[in-house]
Specification:
The complex is a heterodimer of chains A (246) and B (1081). Chain A is α/β, with parallel strands linked by helices and 246 residues long. Chain A contains seven helices and 13 strands. Chain A has two domains: 146 residues, P-loop containing nucleotide triphosphate hydrolases (Rossmann fold); 64 residues, no CATH class. In chain A, the strands form three sheets. In chain A, strands 3, 6, 7, 8, 9, 10 and 11 form a seven-stranded mixed β-sheet that branches. In chain A, strands 2-1-4-5 form a four-stranded antiparallel β-sheet, covered by helices on one side. In chain A, α3 packs parallel to α5. The longest helix of chain A has 18 residues. The radius of gyration of chain A is 17 Å and the shape is globular. With 1081 residues, chain B is of the alpha+beta class. Chain B contains 29 helices and 35 strands. In chain B, strands 1, 2, 3, 4, 5, 6, 7, 8, 9, 10, 11 and 12 form a twelve-stranded mixed β-sheet that branches. Chain B has a ten-stranded mixed β-sheet with strand order 15-31-32-30-33-16-14-34-13-35, with helices on both faces. In chain B, strands 17, 19, 20, 21, 22, 24, 26 and 29 form an eight-stranded antiparallel β-sheet that branches. In chain B, α9 packs parallel to α24, α14 packs antiparallel against α26 and α16 packs antiparallel against α24. Chain B is elongated and about 130 Å long. Classes of the chains: A alpha/beta (246), B alpha+beta (1081).
C-alpha cells in the first residue's frame, strides 16, 4: 500500500475486493486493493490481461461495485453512492476513455465532445465554444463535423479524450486507450493525455501494458492476479522534466 | 452443416420462434381466406338459395288452350317436366287453371242487353290463397256423378254480390264460347271467399275483381259483362271436359338443404325446360312456356359470391404482403445478427452454395412447421369467425375442418415466405461503398416508382370499371388495395425521413442530451427505420380495413335506404280502400302516406324494355319523415319536399260516417240531362278514394247518393259531374260507360247541381275551410261554359252548388265534365327528377314535360335534379307530391287516386313489419331488413368478416415486427448503451433515450401509415364497393372514415408498440452494463 506523501490524494482505494460468480467457478478479480493517486498526476495501471485492471477502473468509475472496500474520488465515497449519485459522479468528476473509443456513432466529432456538456445542460453557445476549444486541443478542429466512422482510430481516440475532458472532470480514467492503435498513434494519444494532465490539471488513471506508455506516466501501479504488486509500485524511471520519455 | 444448424437453432431459439410466428401469420391468414372463398362461399350460396323467396325459385309452366280431353294428361305431363327439370331436388307442384269463357244466361246477370260471360277456375291449395267468408270449400264430384250432379264451386265476394249468389245457389253456365264448345254445366255455390293478396290472383282473368262490366273477351270489339270465377275442384275442372284457357303449373323446389352440385345441375337443366315441355306436350296445347327466376336467382347468387370472393382475396393478398414485409424485416434482422457468424463461416471456407443450402434447410423447416401449425390454426380461427356476427347470423357457422384448397394455400404461402427468408439469408451484405450505396438507392427508388405506377394503373382500372356487373375488374379488385397501400407506405416512408431530419435540426439547438440524442438516433441511424415499411404498411392496412369496412357498411345502408325509399314500404296487390291507412298506421305507429310507385310514359318516351321511367309520388310535406336516401350537398328531404308540396292542404268538406248525401240538379232547355256524380273522399292519411254514384237526372228532385262515407274522418275534396243526355234509371250500374251524347243536340243548357252533405257544417272542425274551384275537365273543356262552385252552410248541412252552361252542340263523344275541387288547379306539377331521367330526356331545372299517368297526361315542371329518387335507385324517375299529382289528375277529370303502396316513416312498433304483413295487404319491405340482407346476408357476410380479420392480423404483425426489430437493434447496440452509462447517463435517462428514439420513429410512421390508410380509403374504398350483383352501387359509395375506431386502433397500436418497446428497452438498459464494457474493452 502506498500513497503520495506530499499531495492530498484525489483518489483513495482501500481494501477493494471483487469476485465474479459463485462456487468453484468463482473468480476473485480483485483482492484487497488499496492505493492513492495524487491530484494532477498521471498514473499507469499495469498488468497482464485478466489481472483485474478493467474491473478496478470500473469500480473506481462507479460502473461496478466492489464486494468490499471503499473508493474515494475527490472525497466522495463512490461505493456508498446510489445509482443517481454514481451517474452524477461520472458527469461531474470522473470521465472515461475506452479502448474502443466509446464514441456514439450517430454523432459527429463535435457532438460527441459536446455530449457531456449537454448532460450538464450547458448553454449551447458556451457548449460550442468549449467543444471548439477541446477539438483545437486534440488537433481535430478540422474534423468537427465528421462522424466516428469517418475518422481514423487515433482521431477517434482523440475525440474520446476531448469528450472526456469536456465536463472538466477531476479524474480521467482511460482503459487501454491505445490498445487498438498502432505504436505511433498510441504514443501520440498518450502524449496528449500527458499534455492534458499538465494543461488541464486533470488526474489521469490509465491502464496499459505498453512500457512506452508506462514511461509517460508519473507513477505506475502493477496489478497481479487482482492484487497490487508492491514491488513494482512507485515513481517510474526515466522521467525528464516530470514527463516519461522511455 | 446440419449439426451447425442444430446447434445454432438451440442457441438462437428465441429468434427462430419469432421467425416462426411471423411465417405462421401469413399462411394462417391465407388458410382462413381460402376457407372463406371455398367452404364458406359454397355454404353461403346454399344458405342464400335456401332463404330465397318462393317467387325467386319457383318454376311456372304456362299452357294455353287445352282441349278438355287433354287437360288431365297435359297437367300431369307438365308436372313431370317441371319436377325432372328441378331434379335432384324434390319439388311440390300447384296448379291453377281457368276455362275458356262460357255464356251466362240473362236471368243471372245484366238485363241491359250486354252479353254476360263467366268461367270456371280451379286453384290447388285454395285455402292458402283465399279466405272463406261463408260456406265451405268445394269438393270433387264423384266420377260416376260427374255428368249428372252440379259441380261444387265457391265464388268471390264481389261476384256473389253482383250476381246475387248465396250458399246453395245453383247457376247454369252455358256452353263454351269457342270453336269446339264443351256443353253447359251447372254449379252449386258452396262458399264465398275473399282472395288473399300476393297469392297469384293477379293472374286470374278478371284479376280477382269478381266481375268486369267492360270485359274485352277478344271475340268482339264490343265489351261484355264478365263475372267469375266459379272456383271448382281441380279434378272436376281437368276431367270435366271444359276447354282450359290457361293452365298454370307452379313447381316449388325443396331447397332447404341444397348442394352446390345440385344447384349447378338445376341451373344447367332450366334453360332446356321450355323445349322439353314443348316436345312433351306437342299439339295438345296451343302455347306453352316455362318461366322461372331460379336461373337469375342462381346467377345473382354467383355474382354476389364472386364479388365477396374478390374482396376476401384482396384481404388475403394484403395479408400476404404484410407477412412478406414482416418476414423481410425479420430476415434482414436475422442476417444482421448472424453477420459475424456468416463472415466467420465464409472465412473458414464455407461456400455461398453451402450457406444457401443451410438457409434453405432452415427456412424449409420453418415453412413446414409454420404450415403444420397454420392449418389447424386457420381451421380453428375460421370456425371461430363463423360463429361471430355477421357470419353467425347468416347461418354460416361451421365446426373446424380442413379442405384441400386450404392446405394448398397454407403450404404455398409458407413456402413462398420461406423463399423470402432464403433470399435474404444469401443476399450480399449491405453496401459499404458510396457507389454501391448509390446504386442500391437508385434501385430502391426505381422499385418505389414502379410500385407507384402499378398502384396508379390499378386505381385507374378501378376508376374506369364498368358500372354494370362485370368480372373484368376482379383481378384489379384483388390486387389494387395491396398495391396502393404498399406504394403509399413506401412513399410515406420517404416523407418520414425528412421529418425526422427536421427533428434532428431542432435537437441540435437544444440544451440537454436525452431527447436530442433520441432524435439524432432516430434521424441518423438507417437501422432506426428498418421496420418503417412494416409499421407504415400495417398501420395503413389496419386503418384501411376499418375505413373500407365503414365505407362498405355505409354504402350498403345507403343502397338499402334508396332501394326501399322509406322505413317500411307496403306494396299493395289490390287498390287501397278507405281506412286502410288507419290500419297501417295502427300497426306501425309511424308516419303513413299513400304512394304512387309505377312506370309511366314521358311524352312519347316509354324507356327501355323492362325499365320504364318511374313515377314516385308521396306526401312531400312530410318528406323528412317518409323519404330515405342520401342527398348531396347537405340537403335534406325537407328542402326537396318543400318545393314539391302544395302550399296548403286540401281540407274540403267533412263527411260524417254514414252520412246520406243527396244530389239535386236542374237543367234548362228541352233536352233532359243526367249527371253521374263521382265524389273524391280523402281520409286522415291523405288517401283519396273515389265513390261513384248512379246517374242522376237533373229533374229538380233530391236523389240519394251511395253510402260513400264508410269511415270516420273523411272529407270531400272533389266532385266530378259528367253530363250526359237522356235519363237513365237510377240504380243501374254504368261503370265504364262513356259520358257521351248518343245523338247530336243543339243549343245550351244551364245546369245547376247541389250536393248536400248532412251533418257538421263546413266551418266545423279544426280544419280551415278551403276555397272550392270549378273546372271543365279536358279533353273538351270548351263544352262547359262558366263553371262555378259555391259552398254554403245550411241547417241541413253543407251544400256544394255547382253551376255551368253545357254546350249541347259539338261532337257527341266530347266529354262534358264539370269538376269541383277543394283546391285550385295546380298547373304543372312540380317534380324533382333523377339525374338519369334528366340525362335521358335532356331535362333541367325549369323544364316542362308531360307524364302520362294511366291515360291522363299530367304536365310537370322540373324543380331540381336529384342524384336518384327514393325506391328507384339508378332509374329514370320522377318524384312528385301525391296530393299535387292527384289534384292535376282530378282537374283533368280523372278521380282515380294512383296509389300502389303505403310508405311508413319512423315506425314506432318494433315488429311493425310483422304486424303489417299480418294485414295481408301486400308485400312488406323494410329498410332495416334490406340493410340486414345487404350487410349480413349469407353471400355478403364473408366480406366484413375478412376485413375484420385484417385488422388484428395487421396489429399482430406490427407488434411482432416491432418487438423483433427493437430486440435486434438493442442487442446490436448493447455496447453503445453501456457507454452511455459511462458518460454519466442514469438508467432512467438511457431508457428515455431509447424509448424516445423508438417512439420518435413509431409516431411518425404510425401517422404516415394512418395517412396512407385514410388516403386509400378515400380514393379506392368507394371504388371497391360493389352492389350485390357486382355492379356499381347506387347511390355511389362515399368514403367513410370512422374517426373513433380509427383513433382507437391507432392508439392501441401505438400503445402496444410503446409497451413492447418499453419492455425491451427496460430489459436492455438493465443488461447493458459494465459486462459489455469489459467484454468489448
Amino acid at each position: 500500500m502506498s500513497a503520495g506523501p506530499t499531495v492530498r490524494p484525489l483518489l483513495t482505494v482501500r481494501g477493494v475486493h471483487r469476485r465474479f460468480g459463485t462456487g468453484p467457478t468463482a473468480v476473485q478479480a480483485l483482492r484487497d486493493v488499496s492505493f492513492d493517486v495524487a491530484a494532477g498526476t498521471m498514473v499507469a495501471l499495469v498488468g497482464r490481461s485478466g489481472s483485474g485492471k478493467t474491473t478496478l477502473l470500473n469500480i473506481i468509475g462507479g460502473l461496478d461495485r466492489p464486494d468490499a472496500g471503499t473508493v474515494l474520488v475527490d472525497g466522495t465515497d463512490v461505493t456508498a453512492l446510489d445509482e443517481d449519485g454514481l451517474s452524477r459522479l461520472r458527469r461531474e468528476k470522473v470521465a472515461y476513455v475506452f479502448q474502443t473509443f466509446g464514441l456514439i456513432p450517430v454523432l459527429s466529432a463535435a457532438e460527441n465532445v459536446g455530449a457531456p456538456l449537454r448532460l450538464a445542460r450547458t448553454p449551447p453557445e458556451e457548449r460550442e465554444r468549449r467543444v471548439e476549444l477541446l477539438l483545437e486541443l486534440v488537433g481535430l478542429a478540422d474534423h468537427a463535423q465528421q462522424r466516428p466512422g469517418e475518422l481514423s482510430g487515433g482521431q477517434q481516440q482523440r475525440v474520446a479524450i476531448a469528450r472526456a475532458l469536456a465536463a472538466s472532470p477531476r479524474l480521467l480514467i482511460a482503459d487501454e486507450p491505445t490498445g487498438q492503435l498502432d505504436a505511433e498513434t498510441g504514443l501520440s494519444v498518450m502524449a496528449l493525455l500527458r499534455g492534458v494532465v499538465e494543461s488541464e490539471g486533470v488526474t489521469v488513471l490509465v491502464s496499459t501494458h505498453d512500457p512506452v506508455m508506462i514511461a509517460l506516466a508519473d507513477r505506475a501501479i502493477r496489478i497481479v492476479d487482482g492484487q497490487v504488486d508492491g514491488r513494482f509500485e512507485g515513481q517510474v524511471d526515466g522521467q525528464v522534466d516530470g514527463r516519461a520519455t522511455s | 452443416m446440419l449439426r451447425l444448424l442444430a446447434l445454432r437453432a438451440r442457441a438462437q431459439w428465441p429468434l427462430l420462434a419469432a421467425l416462426l410466428t411471423v411465417v405462421m401469420v401469413g399462411p394462417t391468414l391465407l388458410g382462413i381466406c381460402a376457407l372463406l372463398v371455398t367452404r364458406t362461399a359454397e355454404q353461403a350460396l346454399e344458405a342464400a338459395v335456401s332463404r330465397a323467396a318462393p317467387d325467386d325459385v319457383d318454376v311456372t309452366a304456362y299452357t294455353m288452350t287445352v282441349r278438355g280431353p287433354d287437360a288431365r294428361s297435359v297437367a300431369d305431363d307438365t308436372r313431370g317436366v317441371l319436377t325432372s327439370a328441378l331434379a335432384p331436388f324434390a319439388a311440390t307442384t300447384a296448379a291453377r287453371a281457368s276455362s275458356v269463357m262460357r255464356s251466362l244466361p240473362a236471368t243471372r246477370a245484366g238485363g241491359d242487353g250486354v252479353p254476360a260471360e263467366t268461367y270456371l277456375s280451379s286453384v290447388e291449395d285454395l285455402p292458402a290463397r283465399a279466405q272463406l267468408t261463408i260456406g265451405r270449400w268445394p269438393r270433387a264430384t264423384a266420377d260416376a256423378a260427374k255428368h249428372a250432379a252440379p259441380l261444387e264451386a265457391v265464388v268471390l265476394q264481389p261476384t256473389a254480390q253482383v250476381l246475387g249468389l248465396t250458399l246453395g245457389s245453383r247457376v247454369h253456365l252455358g256452353s263454351e264460347l269457342s270453336s269446339d264448345p264443351a256443353p253447359a254445366v251447372d254449379v252449386t255455390v258452396v262458399g264465398v271467399v275473399r282472395p288473399l293478396p300476393g297469392t297469384g290472383w293477379d293472374r286470374d282473368p278478371l284479376t280477382a275483381a269478381g266481375y268486369d262490366l267492360a270485359y274485352q273477351d277478344g271475340r268482339s270489339v264490343r265489351p261484355v259483362h264478365a263475372y267469375g270465377p266459379f272456383v271448382v275442384d281441380l279434378a272436376d275442372l281437368l276431367t270435366g271436359g271444359s276447354t282450359i284457357d290457361q293452365l298454370e303449373i307452379i313447381a316449388h323446389p325443396d331447397l332447404s338443404a341444397p348442394t352446390r352440385r345440385g344447384l349447378d345441375t338445376v341451373a344447367e337443366a332450366m334453360p332446356g325446360a321450355d323445349r322439353r315441355l314443348a316436345r312433351t306436350l306437342g299439339d295438345r296445347v296451343r302455347i306453352e312456356r316455362v318461366a322461372s327466376r331460379l336461373p337469375l336467382t342462381l346467377l345473382a347468387a354467383n355474382d354476389q359470391q364472386r364479388v365477396t370472393a374478390a374482396a376476401v382475396l384482396a384481404v388475403a393478398v394484403l395479408g400476404s404482403v404484410l407477412t412478406a414485409t414482416a418476414l423481410a424485416l425479420a430476415g434482414r434482422l436475422t442476417a444482421g445478427v448472424r453477420a459475424d457468424e456468416t463472415a466467420l463461416l465464409s472465412a473458414l471456407g464455407v461456400s455461398r452454395g453451402q450457406l444457401a443450402a443451410a438457409a434453405t434447410v432452415e427456412a424449409g423447416t420453418l415453412a413446414v412447421l409454420a404450415a403444420a401449425l397454420a392449418i389447424p390454426a386457420s381451421s380453428a380461427l375460421h370456425a371461430g369467425l363463423t360463429h361471430l356476427p355477421p357470419m353467425a347470423g347468416a347461418g354460416l357457422a361451421v365446426q373446424p375442418g380442413v379442405t384441400g384448397v386450404q392446405v394448398l394455400a397454407v403450404a404455398g404461402g409458407a413456402l413462398a415466405l420461406a423463399a423470402v427468408l432464403v433470399v435474404l439469408a444469401v443476399r450480399p451484405a449491405p453496401a459499404v461503398s458510396d457507389r454501391r450505396r448509390r446504386r442500391e438507392l437508385l434501385a430502391r427508388s426505381g422499385a418505389d416508382l414502379l410500385l407507384v405506377a402499378f398502384a396508379a394503373a390499378g386505381w385507374w382500372q378501378l376508376h374506369s370499371q364498368p358500372t354494370g356487373s362485370s368480372s373484368r375488374a376482379d383481378a384489379v379488385l384483388v390486387l389494387a388495395p395491396a398495391l396502393l397501400l404498399t406504394a403509399g407506405s413506401a412513399l410515406a416512408l420517404r416523407l418520414v425521413l425528412p421529418a425526422l431530419r427536421g427533428a434532428d435540426r431542432l435537437a441540435r439547438r437544444a440544451r440537454g442530451l436525452v431527447l436530442p440524442l433520441a432524435a439524432f438516433e432516430a434521424a441518423r441511424r438507417p437501422q432506426a427505420v428498418a421496420a418503417g415499411l412494416l409499421i407504415g404498411l400495417t398501420c395503413a392496412a389496419g386503418t384501411f380495413g376499418i375505413g373500407f369496412d365503414a365505407t362498405w357498411q355505409r354504402s350498403q345502408h345507403d343502397q338499402a335506404d334508396l332501394s326501399v325509399g322509406t322505413d317500411l314500404a307496403l306494396t299493395l296487390t289490390t287498390p287501397p280502400v278507405t281506412g286502410q291507412g288507419a290500419a297501417v298506421s295502427a300497426a306501425t305507429g309511424g308516419a303513413v302516406s299513400p304512394v304512387t310507385d309505377r312506370g309511366i310514359a314521358v311524352g312519347q318516351w316509354l324507356g327501355s324494355a323492362g325499365d320504364p321511367p318511374r313515377l314516385v309520388a308521396v306526401d312531400t310535406s312530410r318528406a323528412e319523415d317518409l323519404l330515405r336516401g342520401r342527398l348531396n350537398g347537405g340537403r335534406s328531404w325537407t328542402d326537396v319536399g318543400a318545393a314539391l308540396a302544395p302550399p296548403t292542404r286540401a281540407t274540403g268538406v267533412a263527411v260524417p260516417v254514414g252520412a246520406a248525401l243527396t244530389l239535386t240538379g236542374t237543367a234548362t232547355g228541352a233536352s233532359p240531362l243526367t249527371v253521374t256524380p263521382r265524389l273524391l273522399l280523402q281520409d286522415a292519411t291523405g288517401l283519396r278514394t273515389p265513390c261513384t254514384g248512379a246517374p242522376v237526372p237533373l229533374d229538380g228532385r233530391a236523389h240519394p247518393l251511395p253510402a260513400c262515407a264508410t269511415a270516420e274522418g273523411l272529407r270531400l275534396v272533389a266532385v266530378s259531374l259528367p253530363v250526359t243526355a237522356g235519363v237513365t234509371a237510377p240504380g243501374n250500374v254504368s261503370i265504364g260507360s262513356p259520358y257521351t251524347f248518343d245523338e247530336p243536340l243543339a243549343g245550351d243548357s244551364r245546369v245547376a247541381v247541389t250536393l248536400t252533405v248532412p251533418g257538421a257544417p263546413a266551418s266545423a272542425g279544426t280544419a280551415p275551410r278551403s276555397p272550392w274551384t270549378a273546372t271543365s275537365a279536358a279533353p273538351a273543356p270548351g263544352q262547359l261554359v262558366d263553371p262555378a262552385v259555391a259552398l254554403t252552410s245550411t241547417p241541413a248541412g253543407t251544400q256544394l252548388r255547382m253551376t255551368t252552361t253545357v254546350k249541347l252542340e259539338g261532337p257527341p263523344d266530347a266529354a262534358r265534365n264539370l269538376v269541383a275541387t277543394a283546391f285550385p288547379a295546380p298547373g304543372p306539377v312540380p317534380a324533382a327528377v333523377s339525374a338519369r331521367f334528366a340525362d335521358e330526356v335532356g331535362a333541367q331545372r325549369g323544364s316542362r314535360l308531360s307524364l302520362t299517368v294511366g291515360t291522363t297526361p299530367v304536365p310537370i315542371s322540373v324543380t331540381e335534379v336529384l342524384p336518384t329518387v327514393p325506391s328507384a335507385p339508378g332509374a329514370a324517375a320522377v318524384l312528385t307530391d301525391l296530393d299535387t299529382l292527384s289534384r292535376a289528375l282530378v282537374v283533368s277529370g280523372n278521380l282515380e287516386f294512383p296509389v300502389d303502396a303505403w310508405w311508413v316513416g319512423h315506425p314506432a312498433q318494433g315488429d311493425a313489419a310483422v304486424r303489417v304483413t299480418a294485414l295481408h295487404l301486400g308485400t312488406v319491405t323494410t329498410r332495416a331488413a334490406e340493410t340486414a340482407r345487404l350487410t349480413g346476408g349469407p353471400l355478403r357476410a364473408g366480406l366484413p368478416a375478412a376485413l375484420r380479420l385484417l385488422v388484428p392480423a395487421s396489429a399482430l404483425l406490427l407488434l411482432a415486427g416491432v418487438v423483433l426489430h427493437v430486440t435486434c437493434d438493442l442487442q446490436i447496440r448493447a455496447l453503445e448503451v453501456a457507454r452511455l452509462r459511462g458518460l454519466g447517463m442514469s438508467r432512467r435517462e438511457i431508457r428515455t433515450v431509447l424509448l424516445g428514439q423508438h417512439v420518435g420513429v413509431l409516431l411518425p410512421l404510425h401517422a404516415a401509415g394512418a395517412a396512407v390508410g385514410a388516403f386509400a380509403t378515400g380514393i379506392i374504398a368507394p371504388l371497391l364497393v360493389r352492389s350485390d350483383i357486382g355492379a356499381a352501387p347506387v347511390p355511389a359509395a362515399l368514403a367513410s372514415w370512422p374517426w373513433a375506431p380509427e383513433a382507437a386502433l391507432l392508439a392501441l397500436l401505438l400503445a402496444g408498440c410503446t409497451l413492447a418497446v418499453a419492455a425491451v428497452v427496460t430489459v436492455q438498459a438493465r443488461r447493458a452494463d459494465v459486462a459489455h464494457l469489459r467484454v468489448a474493452s
